[in-house]
Design brief:
Three copies of one chain form a homotrimer. By secondary structure, chain A is of the alpha+beta class. Chain A has five helices and 15 strands. In chain A, the strands form two sheets. A seven-stranded mixed β-sheet of chain A has the order 2-1-3-5-4-6-7, with helices on both faces. A seven-stranded mixed barrel of chain A has the order 9-10-14-13-12-11-15. The first copy, chain A, is elongated, with a radius of gyration of 21 Å. Chain A starts with a strand and ends with a strand. At the B-C interface, β1, β2 and α2 of B face α1 of C.
């Protein structure tokens, strides 16, 4: 089993050379590998945001190697891991099994990879990356993307088996990710803001089915402030200044305005709590 | 006719995973395709800026597929289109004809692609992307780059003909792009700022031939403020603080300073009107 | 001798189309070439910062073509150059010699490439890029990345020899780069801030051996302000708010905090002077 693509997410930013050097290292070890940058602008050290981004993206990244590096504990005792997900264990070469091929997630064991692994069906196998034969020598311990994770991702592309990369560990021992769940309370849904995108759309952890009874107008409350939102299919269906609820591209509800930032309009940030309730007739 | 390269411009930004996921989708459908990021930092919803950027770039992107996504009307009734430009209609495989090979522009029908199509010689054929066999299933309608445009670009690379992608439409029915024209008034040229680049250089919609009579010193006016600019060939020819007019890399006049921002110095922004006039002897 | 990879650093930013167009040009001349973006967000015109970034990265970029464009003198009399570095002069095809294969650095002769060339063992050959057969025609002289450096990098990938690209010049005539050296004064080390990374870590031009006598606690002074820093192996070894000195990923000392910006905490910027001294028992 080998791979031709590494999907790469990090909090390295694009000003320093970090992401570029990791890609150069991957290319040197496994020439011809395609590296797809998912984003390198996860907020610094924000494991939650990185984990949610990987979770949103993962179904489009498989089969392949997924390299995630948001790693405030770099160089400490936190484990470096590779996690196999997906089906097709026989490795029959078609790369697919029940819709998702076998793939490997590589990164620190701090919860970053866990939400994506869960969405991909859960970890089948996991190893701690203790075999330094597959790492680069380095003067310091602060750049594991270049010295450990990148080289391991490249060797996985070349066909190195997980078992070669280090000692097998119990998938149940991995640090879990945090995916906040919404909850029904009386006639309200208590939700949380998962993500604000570039356009200011506010993704909530709410499936449309959870508010199916509420009809076309829904009250969106944050603390003392309440706004009425109308259910629409696209941003352009909203009049100027009108607050809407759309089913976003990941199938979750998002608060949105037409060509304006809903996050600014409603003063919402990731992690904020939001209540949804039916509007009076 | 197939393509090996997709040039990709959008207003997705580089913080969210949007551009990365589109590239992953293209790679999954058409493995080995090279995706060249032109920019993903077109200002949000700014069709004019995106259209001008594509127009500046287009001659360097052909032959190939050009994917442009600045799409405030995503999910609404605006059409999704593919537009064939260039010559070599016989598809003889050499990829060139009268200087530009046949290429396909893919994106929303909102004027974004029109300036580039015009520069590439005009639309030869156009289709509305109504054949959902070439799209991805998606829970919402807000991410056409991932679900429609990216998959279509990938299938074009694989050799799918335009006619397979949807119903043919009249190229004359496409939404036109807006390219502001300069005009001669008395002894002045009334111009408009097209673009401010990272270095603060101010591109005007003025060909050097339009001010050929004005000599080496030209008055640049914005409202009540007038500055004298000297014609030079390169930024380094300017003394510290001196305002210059250079022929920029696209053959248009740009107001510039040496190692400083002309846009800041002259308080200019895209869309601003500027007058050029001959300086007194 | 040909190359499959161009590593590309510039101050073009990622908002304008500059970097994308250069990559399109490289791909058109040398299809299949992998372009690795090191960074395009070197501060505008900052040759020192670009040179240090290339110097940090260079060992991971070889063998290959390295394209560096931070070029405030574009279009002026400053030379455009290609510089051959590394060993394996016989070109026996294995791409390595004493650890580094032959590589070529391409860019302006303004000191940008010099620190990297020095780290790669020094310039073996150099040419001034005077042969316009390998350039693109262009209306203006302001975009040498697209019109000169990018095309030359692509032709080098195709196997064009340095001698074809222009007249040979004496490597000793190249503009040198500036790498500030630390110095021992009494019992202090007078250092300079080389780089602040995204996380606020402050890289100094000091090798750990220079403070080997100082023990585990070191006084870090900037002007009148002194902070005690503790020597640690990783950021996570630091208590909240504690200032540390780590050996960074390039083997130099860096002032750091755990999950906070040392640059903000100590008010340090690139180029600032810093003193290191032993703490009293």
């Amino acid at each position: 089993m080998s791979f031709s693509t590494v999907s790469f997410l990090s909090d390295y930013g694009l000003v320093d050379e970090f992401a570029g050097v990791v890609k150069a290292v991957i290319g040197a070890i496994a020439p011809g590998t395609t590296v797809v940058d998912i984003t390198h602008q996860v907020p610094a050290h924000d494991v939650r945001a990185g984990g949610l981004t990987l979770a949103r993206s993962i179904q489009y990244l498989l089969p392949g190697v997924v390299l995630g590096v948001v790693d405030p504990g770099v160089g400490s005792s936190r484990r470096a891991i590779a996690v196999e997900v997906g089906t097709d264990p026989a490795g029959n070469g078609d790369g697919v099994g029940e819709g998702i091929g076998v793939s490997v997630l590589v990164g620190p064991d701090n919860g970053l990879l866990a939400p994506a692994a869960a969405i991909a069906g859960g970890a089948r196998r996991a190893v701690s990356l203790t075999n330094t034969d597959y790492h680069l020598d380095a003067p310091g311990q602060t750049f594991a993307g270049r010295d450990i994770f990148g080289p391991v991702a490249a060797h996985l592309c070349l066909g190195v088996d997980l078992a070669e990369l280090g000692e097998e560990i119990d998938p149940l021992s991995l640090i879990p990710g945090i995916i906040p769940l919404s909850r029904q309370e009386d006639d309200r849904v208590e939700a949380e803001v998962l993500w604000i995108d570039r356009f200011g759309n506010v993704q909530l952890n709410v499936d449309p089915s959870e508010i199916a009874e509420m009809g076309d107008r829904v009250l969106v409350s944050r603390g003392e402030t309440t706004r009425a939102a109308v259910r629409v299919a696209s941003y352009a269906d909203l009049a100027a200044g009108q607050v809407g609820l759309v089913v976003d591209s990941y199938g979750l509800l998002a608060v949105a305005l037409n060509r304006r930032s809903a996050a600014e309009e409603l003063h919402l940030a990731p992690g904020d709590g939001v209540s949804l309730a039916m509007a009076a007739e």
